[in-house]
């Protein structure tokens, strides 16, 4: 593997893990700030895309429809993943959300005529076993699985998978064009919607949220932009980096980093069954990406 590709992959993995750490720290400082955080996160990522990639205003008006749908899923992914981290385990949240490629994979099989492979079935099998092990009844001081966490993490997973599917659809329908414009418009819509919700639902907390966690929100936004830009560079034809290798490496590496941070910094205690489920989950992600 090219040395530059290795550096980029490590950078994306570390940026992904750092974003999750920043999100967890924010949840410990701020109690009512999911949408305030999302505004800062999304807006900062959008600014980076505008400055580095630029936006040309010669795209078709139909692009707006795709951007609106993508924004709905993007907000769901960002907000509910954040709430899952707030409610429960950082390590387990990272694992479950990483299962999101199942959704665009299913879309490809059902609507795009893509063929299923043996690795896909193995990935789904390991995924199912992983979910069972994670949710086994525990009797020690391990991380508890709550109903609210399950709801939040599943909505985060669906949002993340659906936004990836929508991005794939946009690229197919527009012949690979307007990707940067599409993302900037989507980020702008998402930031405005989150700002409106923050000003209404988090009324009275916004100033406190900004004071206690504003810097973390900005840093996480920069990390979000870094992850997207790094992934885009790796996906460029000139890098000669197969997606079947790139995405499993990034997902698995991010989960491993999140597990280490969760255990050694946030002192999360996972049972042996959960650790086994986590390991099988990483194997599942690798197979799903092949």
Ends: how far apart? 17 Å
- Our estimate of the beta-strand percent is under 5%
Structural class: mainly alpha
- Helix residue percentage: over 70%
Summarize the main sheet.
none
Counting DSSP H or I runs of 4 or more residues, the number of helices is: 11
* Overall pLDDT level: 86
* Integer-rounded radius of gyration: 19 Å
What is the topology?
Layout: H1 3-29, H2 34-53, H3 62-87, H4 90-97, H5 102-111, H6 118-134, H7 147-173, H8 179-201, H9 206-235, H10 243-264, H11 272-288
Please supply descriptive tags for the structure shown above:
single chain, 290 residues
Describe this protein's structure.
- The chain has eleven helices and no strands.
- The chain has helices at residues 3-29, 34-53, 62-87, 90-97, 102-111, 118-134, 147-173, 179-201, 206-235, 243-264, 272-288.
- Helix 3 (62-87) packs antiparallel against helix 4 (90-97).
- It is globular and about 55 Å long.
- The model has no long low-confidence stretch (mean pLDDT 86).
